[in-house]
Amino acid sequence: MEQLSFFHDHSLLILVIITVLVGQLMMTLFFNKFSHRLLLEGQLIEIIWTVLPAVTLIFIALPSLRLIYILDEVNNPSVTIKSIGHQWYWSYEYTDFKKIEFDSYMIPINEMKPFNFRLLDVDNRVKIPYETQIRMLVTAADVIHSWTIPALGVKIDATPGRLNQISFSSNRSGLFYGQCSEICGANHSFMPIVIESISPNYFMNW
Question: How far apart are CA 104 and CA 186, in angstroms?
Fold first, then answer.
């Protein structure tokens, strides 16, 4: 997610430079009094305004392609978690240790504590150790869902009969909230996701 944010800033800077340059050229054209009745061609300027946009596109394309490959890369994950989408809740399995399985339901409004977030908190959070490579295996039991955590830059479809995988890591402790971002039925907006990032020692004790 950090790299996506850096790429966004990089692209935005290039767009600002292009906008300022084109705006300045247009203002110059509107207000100058220069004319040249014998000017029929300018090969040098045509070469410049053909090559410069191509070079600009390369400066945008190379970081973008690098990011695509980084997102698909799985670097020796320390923890594997399987997530199964149901109508309308998530179930999780930690298969690296002893068999740990649980369902994660949204907390109803009448059971919420003062510190809970409406429509975002769940009764069982997914616990992960920070600064550790996590592999998430995602599938669905009924219809297409989407396991999405914006703060971690994670979005992957949960498709029945198919096992998708994605890799991510958290560099600090905290709570990360997400929701199903695939329209999966009547209660689509009531199946949130909560990741609790904790220290590796606390994780092992858990």
Answer: 18
| 190 within 8 A of 179, measured Cβ to Cβ | no
Provide the whole-model pTM: 0.71
For residues 104 and 161, is the Cβ–Cβ distance under 8 A? Answer: no
Cβ neighbourhood burial of 44 (10 Å; 0-12, 13-18, 19+): exposed
Residue 81 DSSP label = E
- Both 130 and 200 in one domain: the answer is yes
For the chain, 206 residues long, the average pLDDT of each consecutive 10-residue run is 86 94 91 79 88 92 88 81 90 87 89 84 91 90 89 87 88 90 82 91 87
Domain that holds residue 19: 1-72
* β-strand partners of 194: 177
**Domain count across the chain:** 2
